[in-house]
Design brief:
The protein is mainly beta. It has a single domain, classed as TM1070-like (Hypothetical Protein Tm1070, Chain: A, Sandwich), CATH 2.60.290.11. Helix content is 11%, strand content 49%. The protein contains four helices and 18 strands. The strands form two sheets. Strands 1, 2, 3, 4, 5, 6, 7, 8 and 9 form a nine-stranded antiparallel beta sheet that branches. Strands 10, 11, 12, 13, 14, 15, 16, 17 and 18 form a nine-stranded antiparallel beta sheet that branches. The longest helix has 15 residues.
Amino acid sequence: MRNIIAVLLLSTVALSASAKNMYIPVAGRAAGANNTLFRTDVRIFNPSSTDDISVSIHYLPQGIEGTNIPGRLVTVPKRQMVVLNDIVGNFFGETQDTIGALRLDSDTDASYEFVADSRIYTDSPNPAVAGTYGQYVPAMELDDAKLKTVVLHLKSPFNVGIPGSGGSYRSNVGVMNPGSETATVTSRLYGADGTPLGTGAVQMIPPKSMRQLSLAALFGGVFFPDGFVTFESTQPVYTYGSVIDNNSGDQVFIRGIEDKAERKPLGAEASGE
């Protein structure tokens, strides 16, 4: 009995002192349509009341295997938040348009715990209306990556004049692969009523990398008021959508959620369904 308790205690220690890895699936600094310039601000919080922690941040450019890309270390004092505005331009020194993902690693087993998130934003493209428009992008755990996902709330690019569309929008979708093997990803576009609208070209996403495409680039010139995209991957991935109002530059980030179509409802096995 004592041996069992000892093993359980050792397991608990091992779990609580393991390095932590998180991913922000999209980040960058890039000019967009209609006089927009998108930048990424990151915040990292240290919940410890006793210890400073160290976090290694890796910028993983689109389409490039990021397994061996080195990170840059930041120290987060106890009960404080590190502010990294325009992280790709200011912290990583990127001067050209670029898009990618961010990998956040605790530097040692002793500094395993942290909280992080980000915001992508642009200045108002209308000189008469000052301010910014942004979208919240969470940092995700490894367990958040899934084989099958669905992204909702999508609108076709430049759907001007379509009843019920609410204006002119453009939509992007993205896939980020946090794993160590290449992910083969198939995407399918549907209207809100489930009507198939197109199948995108199969994408090969390298390890520790991402790819973002507009709906127009992935599925062609399909016009619809509202729709969704499903993703099927050979490796667990994060997926997302970003819908941008062409008139204001306002953005909405839509996190891909697990598609559980093949799972029976709770209790279905017992009832014989």
